[in-house]
Each structure stands twice: as C-alpha cells, then as structure tokens.
Amino acid sequence: MHATLGCNPSYTWKSIWASRGLIEKGISWTIGDGRSVNIWNDVWVPGLPNGRIVVDSISTQFSWVADLIDEQGRTWKEDVIRLLFTHDQAEQILKIPLAEVPILDFYTWRYDTSGIYNVKSGYKLLMGPEYFSSTELSDLQKCKKRVFDSVWSCPIPSKVQITCWKFIKNYIPTALNLAIRRVPVNTDCLLCDSSPESVQHVLECNFLSHVLQVLHVNLTYMTGEQQWLQWLAQLFENLSAESTKRFLVAIWATWGYRNKRFHENANQRPMDIADFVFHYISEFEDVAIIRNPKPKPKVNNWLPPPTNYVKANFDASFQAITKITCIGVIIRNENGLIMGAGSYPNLRALSLEVAEALSCRNAVRLVLELAFRRVLVEGDFLQIINKLLAPSFDRSPSSPIIQEIKQFSGNFLSLSFLHVLRDFNKAAHALAKDGRRFDSPRIWIEEAPTTVEAVAREDRLNRSS
C-alpha cells in the first residue's frame, strides 16, 4: 500500500497503482493479536465513521491495539478503553471479538460479508454511497422488479423464461431492431403484415391476440400514457397464475413460429399455436410431477449422536439494536440425556454471525472442559458451519473465532460440525433465550434449567415414538 509509482512504470503497474485509493477506502483491520494495528492511524473499529478513532487528544502511552488487550485473559481492558475513548467508541471496540489463541491481525474488505474484495463491491464503492445506503426504489424500478419476479417465478421451462426476458429487455432480433442495426430487412410483421415488427408490436399483434383468445387469456392493451414496463407490471398483476403461464408460453411459441415462417416458410393458424401451448404446458406439468414427487413429511426431531459420542447443540439470542447476545449450549449423549449445559449472557457481538461463532466456540470449549473427546457439534446458522468445514479462512469479522475453533480440534479424538434446521435445535434455542435472566455465565452438569429440560425430554419422547 505504500509502494511508489516509480520511473517509467508499465501500463499494468500504473493501473494497479491507480486503484490504491479505492483499496485504501475499502479495507480495514480485523484484530488478532493487535500488534500490527495502530490505534490512532489505522481503520479497525467497525461501526464508527470510516472505522477510525477520532479524539481531541492522543495518549502516547497507548499506540497499538495490543496495548488495549489483556494478554492473560485475552479480553479487552475495559477500564482503559472507557478512559481513553468516548462512550460510543468504547462500545464499538468492546464488541470486537478476540480469539483466546492469539492470531495475526489481517486486512479485511469492508464492503463484502466475506471480507474478500470482489469487482462488484469495488464498482459500487466507486459509484458512490447511494449504492449501499439507498433503500428506496423508483416507480420504474419497482415495475421492473414486479415484471421480472413474475417471469422467473412462473413454473415454466427455463428456455421460455429466457425468451420472455429477452422480450422485456428488447433483446429480441425483431425486424425493426435489425433495421436499426442497419441490417437490410423488410420491417413489416411476418404474422400480420400490418405494422413494423417491434417487440411491443409482437405482444399486440393480431396473431398473438387470436392465440390468447383461444387460450382464454384476456389482456388490457397499453394506453398512450403508459410506459412499457408499467403496462407489463399491471398486466401480470391482473393475470391469474394459470393465465400468466399461458401468456408467457404463448409468447415463446408465437416467436418460435415466426422464426419458422421466416426460415422455413411454415404456415400455421392461431388455433394450432394455442393447441401446442395447451399440450406443452400439460406435458411439462406431468414431467414436473414425476421429477418432483410429493415430498415426505420432514422429521423435526432432534437426532441423538452415535454410541460413545456426545452431541453439543449451540445457539445465540442476539439483540440487533444493543448488540448484546446470550449463548446457550446443551450437551446430550446417545440416549438423549443431558450431560451438561452452559448459559453465557450479556456478551457483546458485532453481528449475529459473530454471535453464532462465539456460541460455537463456547460449545467446543465446554465439551473440552467436561472431558468429552468424541463430539458432534450442531448449530442452525449455516454460514458458520460452512466456514468451519471450509479448508481455508475468509476475512470476515468472525474469522478469528473460526480459526480458534479449528485449533481446538487437535484436542479431540473426533470433532465434527453439522448444520441442522431450527426445529432440530430447540433445546439450545430455549437455553439461549432463558439465559437472559442470568447476570453471569452458568454451567450445569447432567441437568439444565427447567424449561430446557422440558424441551430435551420432548426430544427424547419424539425420538422414541
């Protein structure tokens, strides 16, 4: 980041060097041991404007983030932080997770959840903050979204959807579009010979109108005051699901016939096209039923671990406004009996993902403290499980905790991580909610709070029934 342009640089190096400002604007530090990060000069505090500490006076006694960390307990020196910084700054710093096993600090890209730079997020950053902060869509954008949602959600073959998408985007090689590109063609509509063949005309063509009449699809045609997308949005809003399906397939079939007429001199009536549409939809639905038989009812019961294993379920109850989280961990054996449980209230976390990562770390730490060596760890937060199973690390705020959890694996004979649905994780979820009433961490051996024991008992009964 501190390299100079140099003398007579290559075009490639000049291009890379020119992007330095963008990279500097988008990167920040993720704290590991804090030895590489300057408190006052570097970007390292998520939640603050530009991620920097801004104060009236700088304390020369504290220069590096490592000076704010208690190396023995691997916790923040809260008294020092509250003395040096404003209340808001201190709160944001205390939410930054610290791995108990120190790792090196690393750069992260702030504008992607993975912490890794990609062209899309870089482009948005270059274009300005409105790409990140704007939540209001214009009327035209709303119409476009409704139209495309109607097309892509319709249960029809992909090739039909793609053709309709091309119509909406005006990517179809109609005679008028070809003429605009200076291709020498007759611009009259091949199907009705009455008007220049544009995308709008194809949808208003008498031939397609007759096809839709046979299909019992009633259209309200565009008025002079309506824009193209507004008309389509209103059209899809008024059509039933079945009529939408017939309308889209009819467009695709009519355009296919138009091409055959141009290339093969084919000759069909609107009745023939409508008959084809009926049969095509019917055959597609029959195939869909065969390929997607009625799903079996899902089993929503907790499943026990194999013999000689224990299963640790974890969950986090996260409050988005205060960023306060409560962690619940419950450990059970192959018979569904509670072997241990832990509640960890009033923890700070940057986000729900970080809260779930801390929850998983506490689960692994608890089974380790209770001397279990063959363990399955289950949670319902897919991103965390995927990161634990991935061979490498990303650069997200939860990455230091993920790295720490993986370092624990050497202490086990077997340690596996599994993702489950929320319904399989009811006991841990109940403990995460129930634990809010405690002021400090609580550990239970072969028992749990009454509400959690009731959920665990229900899991056992459902398993045996």
UniProtKB/TrEMBL annotation:
It comes from the Eukaryota. The lineage of its organism: Eukaryota, Viridiplantae, Streptophyta, Embryophyta, Tracheophyta. This is RNase H type-1 domain-containing protein. Gene3D superfamilies: Ribonuclease H-like superfamily/Ribonuclease H. It holds the Pfam family RVT_3. InterPro entries: RNase_H-like_dom_plant, RNase_H-like_EbsB-rel, RNaseH-like_sf, RNaseH_domain, RNaseH_sf, RVT-Znf. Residues 143-209 form the Reverse transcriptase zinc-binding domain. Residues 313-434 form the RNase H type-1 domain. It comes from Hibiscus trionum (Flower of an hour). One of its GO terms (molecular function) is nucleic acid binding.
